Amino acid sequence: MRPANEWLTARRVFRALRAGFLAAPLLSGCALPVYDAVDGSDPLTAEYCEMTPAATGGGRVPGLIVGADMLAPNGHMPGHGVHIRFNGQIGAVAEFDALRTAYPGAAVLDCRGRAVLSPGFVNAHEHPAFSHAFPDANLNPGYAHRDEWRLGIGGKVRLPSPEPYYYDAGDTESIAILLAMELRHLLGGATAIAGTGGVPGVIRNINRHVRDGDPALYDAEADVTTFPFSFSVVEDLENECAGGPVHRFPPAGDDLPFLAHVAHVGEGRPSSCAARAEVARYLERAQRRDRRYSLVHGVAADREDYAAMRELDVTLVWSPRSNLSLYGETVDIAGALEHGVRVALSTDWSPSGSFNMREEVVCARQVAEDAGSALPGEALWRMATINGAYALGLEGRFGSIEPGLRADLMLVRSAGGDAYETVLAATDEDILATWIDGRAVLLSGLLNESLSDGGCEALDGVAPRVCGVFGAFGLSAERFGDYLGDTVPVNDVSGQAACGPPG
Predict the structure, then answer these.
(1) Cβ of 76: how many Cβ atoms within 10 Å?
(2) How many domains does the chain have?
(3) In Å, what is the CA distance from 134 to each residue of 428, 486, 491, 496?
(4) C-alpha–C-alpha distance, residues 409 and 443, integer Å
(5) Which CATH number do you get for residue 108?
(6) In a domain, 316, yes or no
(7) Which residues of 424-438 are buried (b: 16+ CB within 10 A; e: fewer)?
(8) 77 has which bridge partners?
(9) Sequence-separated (6 or more) residues with CB below 8 Å from residue 137
């Protein structure tokens, strides 16, 4: 987090320019469109933003300045702007007029007072390959541990996992299903997803490189581990939980020492011996302090565990909707926050969790209020952005608006009021633009299409246009829907699991 006095003022921008630090070298690949030059023509004015195309640059690519009410790590900054370099990186953050003076040739999108600019949400835990299915008809909150619904043990009804879909350039159906999943998350505010699956070049995907083609799909890595100890923990710990000797799991997860370890731990009620044992073992591992550790779900953790998590800098990745729909309870969020635990939000997957991050925010707020621990908008926003990137060990890449980070941004229209609440409560109709790596992938019809470097197409029932996506996969907006069948739609959350036990 940068103190307010360290953000670029006009004088510091000029100094940086003279020193050459902010001058963008010509790179071979341009993430931003090269905006048409103009000679004294009037700006293009829309209801929410005023667009001024770039001036001639003499061979240089000047980039884009976006002015809005900005949400930065050190708070709400009205009347500020972001300079997005043509390579998809945030070049400078300053007062709007200072940026215009420092970059006189840049294209300008001036939405001050009418829109809020935020980093996109970072979904720190998803299962993209499986997250196309609706909740199973047998979904219920009566499970004590994940092994019960996964394996059907203890007399519980087994919930079968959906068929996974993985990217195959020759399989149009799988591409369409994965693309629908990514568009669903984009419309819900996310610009990054951690988990196995997805398609290259749309939303930012994060996972380990273990298969051919993974480097093209996952542009950032984290050690995202489904089950760090065993795929059948309840069975393995049966004797231990009955008073027998301590079970020794084989060592795992030690082969990527410089990346974050993000693992399912304590996924079950506190009454589950196996879930409690997982938490204890994972926190014991975190005592090595050899890497970033993040604990996904953690329903079985208690306040003593929270104290250890705070001391060991273990982030809690929280998926309240999925926890409640499977186990009937979720983390003691009041206890976690009282102990200073860093909390990041995530959706888990569509069979039991929220269909997008904004819906997860709604559920998290409801759960916190029910627990007597109301979460203000800024706290929820941090859980959905900065904390998510931190949980993945990638806060130096994205998740906030800072010079040098990737330009993964969302711009939503505002009628005034609290800027954090504006971002958290935005619908697809409020989305003016969403950028990934400085490239517009969602663009409102209220804005000029020159903001995109690819053709924009409209989808039925979706307000913003989708830009530079369908053509890259040999699809059209019309053909796209033909492949989706009974999959979760991109813009309808009515079929998601309830945020809490039924009744």
Answers:
(1) 15
(2) 1
(3) 21, 8, 14, 7
(4) 12
(5) 2.30.40.10
(6) no
(7) bebebebbbbbbbbb
(8) 70
(9) none
Cα(37)–Cα(52) distance, rounded to whole angstroms? 9
> b/e string for 217-239 if b means 16 or more Cβ within 10 A?
bbebbbbbbebbbbeebbebbee
Q: Which residue has the tokens 């996969």?
A: 473
Smallest CA-to-CA distance from 349 within 181, 206, 498 is with: 181
Q: Which of 359, 400, 376, 349 lies closest to 122, judged by CA?
A: 400
> Does residue 319 lie in a domain region?
no
- 494 burial type by CB count under 10 A (0-12 exposed, 13-18 middle, 19+ buried): exposed
Tell me how far apart the alpha carbons of residues 307 and 387 are, in angstroms, rounded to a whole number. 18
Q: pLDDT tens digits for 311-362?
A: 999 999 999 999 999 999 999 999 999 999 999 999 999 999 999 999 999 9
Measured distance CA(454)–CA(435) in Å, rounded = 13
Would you say residue 459 lies in a domain?
A: yes
SS3 439: strand
Q: Which domain holds residue 85?
A: 4-120+399-483
Q: Is 324 within 8 Å of 499 (Cβ atoms)?
A: yes
Half-sphere exposure of 322 (CA within 13 A, CB side): 32
Query: pLDDT, tens digit, for every residue of 434-447?
Result: 999 999 999 999 99
Q: Which residue has the tokens 């940086």?
A: 16
Half-sphere exposure of 184 (CA within 13 A, CB side): 28
| Both tokens assigned to 434 | 């969403």
Q: Give this prediction's pTM.
A: 0.91
Q: Count how many residues are written for the chain.
A: 503
Question: Residue 55 has what pLDDT?
Answer: 84
- Measure the CA–CA gap between 281 and 275, rounded to whole angstroms: 10
Closest CA to 346 of 222, 430, 213: 222
Tokens of 247: 């079970």
Whether residue 352 is contained in a domain is answered as no
129 closest CA partner among 168, 169, 157? 168
One-letter amino acid of 210: V
**How far is it, in rounded angstroms, from Cα 112 to Cα 82?**
12
